Amino acid sequence: MIKIAFHGSYAHPLPEGHRFPMLKYELIPEQLLHQGIVKQQQFFSPDLVSEEVICLAHQRSYWQSLKELALPAKEQRRIGFPLTKQLIDRECRIVQGTIQGALLAKKYGIAFNVAGGTHHAGSNWGEGFCLLNDQAVAANYLLNNKLSHNILIIDLDVHQGNGTAQIFNRCSNVFTFSMHGENNFPFRKEKSDLDVGLDDGCLDAEYLDRLRLSLNFFESNLKPDFVFYLAGVDVLGTDKLGKLKLSRSACRQRDEMVFAYCKRQNLPVQVSMGGGYSSSIRDIVDAHCATFKAGIDIFEEL
């Protein structure tokens, strides 16, 4: 049975002005259940990830500063959230949810995290609402425990996965791919193994063509045994921060292309949700739920 990581603290209240980005984490599970895409027993609640596992991807000094709420004010501003113990615990549960999801994906083919996709967190910094890099930690967990040997990270959030690129810039066992808005945040980008930068206003056809070419390249040239997929919906034309012009249909086709590639290649895939900042929360939640439906439909095909 396909499993989904979710915990009530994912939607932990933040000070006024910071709550909207968290609201979707409460609404996505409700909508998935309402639409009959999943059943309640498919959700699991992750524990807190251990410090030793965090430090597979993050420098211990950075983790200590987070844990002790001792990051300098300048670094907290870079993250965008005021640090609290509840927020740190939330991040630790998200990371553990992605790790458990990766293990479940090896069993069932695919698993999801309602949150995650915290790809701006580097080995020794947090940035852009990201404190700990859930998929980077999980990838290193698989490698460290010899559960995987060659990993592909497909990052289709509208913002470049700079933290992920930095963490794995000297790791030959992880191939990092980011397709993103070239002129969007972060303005100082790191070098992924493959970066595809898109112009502002990119439309459906160009986006899907560029993705198809990349997936064809992977199919011909890479031999991963596991995939992490970051499925941000900030590529939508309705997104306040995205600068691209994708329709909801193209966003769904994007997901279907990635999942079909994984299914054809018999690759287990863990999916984290990433960004989404449309003015209407319905646009965000519906697009994320379409990602779940696409993955479940493809992996449950006989």
TrEMBL record:
Give the GO terms filed under biological process for this record: epigenetic regulation of gene expression
Q: Which InterPro entries match?
A: HDAC_classIV (IPR044150), HDACs (IPR000286), His_deacetylse_dom (IPR023801), His_deacetylse_dom_sf (IPR037138), Ureohydrolase_dom_sf (IPR023696)
Instruction: Recall the GO molecular function terms of this protein's record.
Output: histone deacetylase activity; hydrolase activity
Q: Is Protein biosynthesis a UniProt keyword of this protein?
A: no
UniProt keywords (A-Z) are: Hydrolase
Which domain of life, per UniProt? Bacteria
Q: Which residues form the Histone deacetylase domain?
A: 20-290
Q: What does the sequence similarity comment in the record state about its family?
A: Belongs to the histone deacetylase family.
> Protein name, please?
Acetoin utilization deacetylase AcuC-like enzyme
